[in-house]
Amino acid sequence: MQMCKPRYLQYTSNTAWIYNFVGRFIMNMHKSDYICRTMSKTDDILKNVVSHAKEYGFVFPSSEIYDGLSAVYDYGQLGSELKNNIKTYWWKSMVQLNENIVGIDSAIFMHPKIWKASGHVDGFNDPMIDNKDSKKRYRADQLIEDKITRYERDGKTDKAAQLQNDLDQAIKDDDLGRLKAIIEDHGIVCPISGTKNWTDVRQFNLMFSTKMGATAEGAEDVYLRPETAQGIFVNFLNVQKSGRMRIPFGIAQIGKAFRNEVIARQFIMRMREFEQMEMQFFVRPGTEMEWYEKWKAARLKWHLALGSNSERYRFHDHVKPAHYANAAVDIEFDFPFGFKEVEGIHSRTDFDLKQHQEFSGKKMQFFDPEINQSYIPYVIETSIGLDRMFLTVLCNAFEEQDLSTEDKKDSRTVLHIHPALAPVKAAILPLTKKDGLPEKARELMDELKLDFNIQYDEKDSIGKRYRRQDAIGTPICITIDHQTLEDNTVTLRHRDSMEQERVKLDDINGILQKTTGWHSLLKKFI
After folding, report:
1. Is 152 annotated as a binding residue?
2. Rounded CA gap, 287 and 281, in Å?
3. Which residues bind ATP (predicted)?
């Protein structure tokens, strides 16, 4: 059977990046079995989300005029707004609403001994396999996970379950030979060459290293941090003492991390430069599992508070937790390419603080006055990828609606982003460019922009302007017409329902506060 030739291969050079960054994920699947029937609706959804993200200024491929840089992206004018709103939502719900959680901002460069103590130098590895024909490198476990997804889409649930069990057992046993055997047994081929000519599976360290020093001879090897958590652990006593914190308490941080990902895949799901939102919660030893369950529930509630369908989320327990953990679970979201991790909750025990105590020679103990005892606290970690959360919001919000009637064909693309996260809170639209309507609209614009991110648009018909705002997720459009000049009322048009209502100008600020403000969203956590 012939491979399908997707429409986006015929696009102009302006959208050719979609083929480069997403098309390879869709097209370069196994040539023997990833045929036309598997070019499913879910693949089209991902392609459309990625195309939409660029067209409307959410995400651009980095260095695009130089043909891009693999697995690196830039956030555009609307993407940076949405990203900042997600960070604000996390920070407010984590730090502002919890008296015993505070925030810090640690440096990206840290003493190299930290990464030795944490285990990253010796153990921060992924199982990699090369195809001898294409010379391309892949993560062995992700090749197998892709096969599981295809089995599920083909209705072969028993095969998918058995393959998942085999993968879990191989990972649990650190059996690299078994991973290769699974790849061979299930006929998994290279997405580029279509062959099964594989090397052995081996471990590959993911940290970026660089030099720090005034001269080349005296320069010291340092690393770009692969996670933000260690910046919290090494500041544990600084925060505890300066803030007079008592167990249990948490330290939160939002920051960049860097990993030398070999595989550029699934858009912004897996990048070399990314942002994390992490909170380390320090607890008394022996109480960690109770807090672990509490944070599992709290973090899922945070996701669902945005109005997401609960069926698109699930918990996935780690078969083999990392060396520092005695329990670990992922919150997974059902992306167009299957369930993937968005956030991890880990019971890290006292591993990190104990390691830093040993390697630094400084005590990392807390004196607990309630039990008159000193101890190294245990830690519950919640870690969410900001970029993955961004993609979650886009995939959850994106909809192509057919609005056709018997008399007229019509459609719209709309982003049902929660109003509190929406990049633009409202659009002000004068019905015409004359008769004093633009001046009246500008007056309202000047008043509202003190509190909200507002767009002004007077180009094209009012219907086209509504569609543009729908496409970027603007919750409310405010139309200034001739009646406004008479009675100071405007037409409010709501994004999701497309319903319109007449309201007073004096009520607009309050309506926007209630609709798009943080109060109603954060109240769900009190």
Report:
1. no
2. 12
3. 259-261, 341-342, 385-388
Please name the residue that has the structure tokens 């969203």: 521
Listed in sequence order, the residues at least 6 apart from 129 whose beta carbon sits closer than 8 Å to its beta carbon are: 137, 138, 139, 140, 143, 179, 180, 183, 198, 199, 200, 201, 202
Residue 248: cis peptide before it, omega within 30 degrees of 0: yes
Angle between helix 386-397 and helix 77-91 axes, rounded to 10 deg = 110
> What is the number of other CB atoms lying within 10 angstroms of the CB of residue 254?
22
384 is in an annotated binding site: yes
- Looking at residue 33, its pLDDT comes to 37
**HEC per residue, 249-294:** EEEEEEEEEECCCCCCECHHHECCEEEEEEEEEEECCCCHHHHHHH
Helix (H) or strand (E) holding 74: strand 73-75
Chain-centroid distance of CA 267 in Å reads 11
Q: Does 60 count as an annotated binding residue? A: no
Residue 259 in marked binding region: yes
Residue 178, marked binder: no
**Tokens in use for 499?**
């319903």
pTM for the structure as a whole = 0.81
Check the annotation: does 139 bind a ligand: yes
Alpha-carbon gap, residue 468 to 121, rounded angstroms? 49
Confirm or deny that 231 is annotated as ligand binding: no
Phi, psi of 60 (to 5 degrees): -120, 150
Residues 6+ positions from 290 with CB-CB distance below 8 Å: none
Domains located in the chain, CATH noted:
7-39+51-60 (no CATH), 70-116+220-402 (3.30.930.10), 125-205 (3.30.40.230), 406-525 (3.40.50.800)
Rounded to the nearest 5 degrees, what angle is found at the Cα of 425, between the Cα atoms of 521 and 96?
35
Whole-angstrom Cα distance, residue 167 to residue 145?
8
278 among annotated binding-site residues:
yes
Rounded CA separation 161/239 (Å): 46
Give the pLDDT mean for 47-72: 92
Q: Could you list the beta-strand ranges (E) of 76-132.
A: 101-103, 125-130
What are the tens digits of pLDDT across the range 109-123? 999 899 889 887 766
Judge whether 21 is annotated as a binding position.
no
The annotation status of 14 as a binding-site residue, yes or no, is: no
Q: In the structure encoding, which two tokens stand for residue 498, read together? A: 């497309």
* pLDDT at site 519: 95
- DSSP H or E stretch at residue 332: strand 327-335
CB-facing half-sphere around the CA of 27: CA atoms within 13 A: 16
Q: Determine the Cα–Cα distance for residues 17 and 64; give it in Å rounded to an integer.
A: 8
